Amino acid sequence: MGTIRETAGGAWAEQLPGETARYAFSWDSVPSTSIWTCKPEGLAIVAERSGNETEALISGGEAGRWYGVTNTVELPGGQVRCRTFMLLFTAGLPTTGSALFPFPPDAVAGIRRDRLVKLAKSHLGGDELTDDVIWGKILAAEAEAERHLRVWLAPREVLPADPVYDADAAALAAAGERVEREPGYDYDPALFDGSRWGLLELRQRPISVVRWVRFAYPNPGSNLSEIPANWLRPEGTTNKVNIVPSTGTVSLPLNTFIMSILGGGNRVPFMLAVAYRAGIEDVNRRYPDLAQIVKRMALLSIVDDMLMPQSGSVSADGLSQSISFEADKHRDTIETKLDKLRDAIQGPRLVFV
Prior knowledge:
Elements: E1 5-7, E2 10-15, E3 21-26, E4 33-39, E5 44-50, E6 53-59, E7 66-75, E8 79-89, H1 104-113, H2 115-124, H3 131-149, E9 156-160, H4 166-174, E10 179-182, E11 185-187, E12 199-201, E13 207-215, E14 225-226, E15 232-234, E16 240-243, H5 256-264, E17 268-278, H6 283-286, H7 289-305, E18 311-316, E19 319-324, H8 327-346
Parallel strand pairs: 2-8, 9-10
Antiparallel strand pairs: 1-2, 3-6, 4-7, 5-6, 7-8, 9-17, 11-17, 12-16, 13-14, 13-17, 15-16, 18-19
Helix pairs in contact: 1-3, 3-7, 7-8
């Protein structure tokens, strides 16, 4: 039995090329008729009915292509109802969405409907763009925007790079989390300076949760002592963590070595090991314009592949038409919008000349 997944973007399923899968819908009453159709054409569909369920045996799809499968039924009283799901025959096309585009069929269909792609196709012709090519362009544009903004568009778990944490990283990955590894942080006596006591700056932002901060010595995998979790106060939108002693007894086992560091003012490389979660939570809600910017970036990449000229003309009997397109102006506009978003996320930048 094939599995139809219900998501915010709609219903969808996936199937391997060459296999036959059964899909079913349940209705409030027993349908008198049931018709299954697909768009584009190309699927072999055998319709069946069993009580108030309508079923379809589907096969014959092209690898890497999405199909819209619709079941139209007539219920008692002459009521006609339809249900549709998108079916992907998987081969080279990612089946999971991205941070900005959780439902791939909607993103691919939106690119196909864009007038800029239609203009390039009508002007230049050429082979039809496949869904996996379009989806690859979208993912590449999203990665480029992420690098420009210098922030992760979806939350990731960050663990120290020492092999002692490999099992923790594997467990998080198995639970569906994206895991990043990074080296430890230098212990600096200024961490407990009177003017900025307990201010720790991490490499990634924004920070949603700090799992733990440990003093690791004599090697990065050691756990000499750990700062109490209720002392750790991340600033949310930034990369800063305030270490604020709270009520209760001090449970840090500060042995002679650590006390000598605090007293002697020595700097120790990679002594602080930190586990935390960073990245933008619910990016489409917080920055709804970012998805549109990434779509424009993907469109420009597609048009570049088509080698569309900056201008051209079409002439025929009784018809004369000219077109123009300046990709550099579109890129400048996109870069300006990304710069404004970066300032909104990271804060204003200072330039010294």
